[in-house]
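Entry:
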Amino acid sequence: MKRVALVGVGETEFVRRGDRRVGELVVEACRAALADAGLDPSDVDGIVTEGSTMPSRVPADEVAYALGMTDRRFTAAGLVGGAGVVGAVELGALALRSGAADVVLSYYGADFGSAPGGPYAFPVGLEVKEGIEKPLGWYGQPLYFAAMAQRYRHEHGLTEQDLGGVAIATRAHATRTPGALRRAPLTMADYLASPMIAEPFRALDCSLINDGAVAFVMTTLDRARDLRRPPVMLAGAGTGSVATPQESWFTQATDHPRTPAALSGPRAFAAAGLQPSDVDIALVYDCFTISTILQLEDLGLAPRGEGAAFVADGTLPVNTHGGLLSHAYTVGASHVVEAVRQLRGERGEAQVPGAEVALVAGLGVPDHACLLLTGSP
């Protein structure tokens, strides 16, 4: 089987609200990723994206034309949102291993800060939301995930300080990350003073809203050996989807607070021949503080009921760039970038010493994707 490597990563500047079109941001990020790899747009013959928004908002043909690609022979869109961005690596790997492409580019662009409604607008048009749930006030991701936090609190106990500890630990990483949108140190007093959004969530439990774009490039190890940066290897990947559709998962699923990470994680570990104890750094989709806790437990990285303490005490470095809570909201694309930079040893004062295995987890219900990446072979 051909070995697959991530060979280039790129990001735009992240801003709370900008005046640039999301397609323009995507092209800038793609150019940065190709420059990082030492590749030309004409070298790229495959594009993979997440499947919920990018195919219609930033189509592959327009990106290929803007970049100057000359032969796009593989194009695919995968899972939803954060799962789609993280799962794009596995989708690209399938293309590379089959020979359908030689160099694959993936991207994600966000204009949540400047677009009406931001990330909370996407479920508005779903029939069950408009007809039944929204008129009764049951609407919006903070409320949906707050309900999961309440269920978790019922089962395992969950204090304000538990959630605050996750936000504080994540912010501590962001203070050492150039370009993170929130870099000011965060104390428990600061956290407790932030306004309540949906009990038990305060504003600082919720992800950022911003504009920006991210891209990364993949190819085979044989090709990667001749490129600019040390290759970061895909050791294993797994995806999983629950039976409940997206429009009703948040409000009708019967297995809350379990996430599909319980499906994707074991598959990724089995594919890589690794165990949770082998992971040196975890980049986990953190749209809300409870999201981090739930996935760490579902992935087997933290004991059940102990995810908050696991993050707060630094047992395993989690979201070392600041995540969606403090770095930028890119539905997990920057989590992939951070994993690559950590494994290449490029993170300066934020570098995790001896990091050799990184786990990246992306949630986009009803889907989830998990990657295990390792340093150069």
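The longest helix spans residues 81-98.
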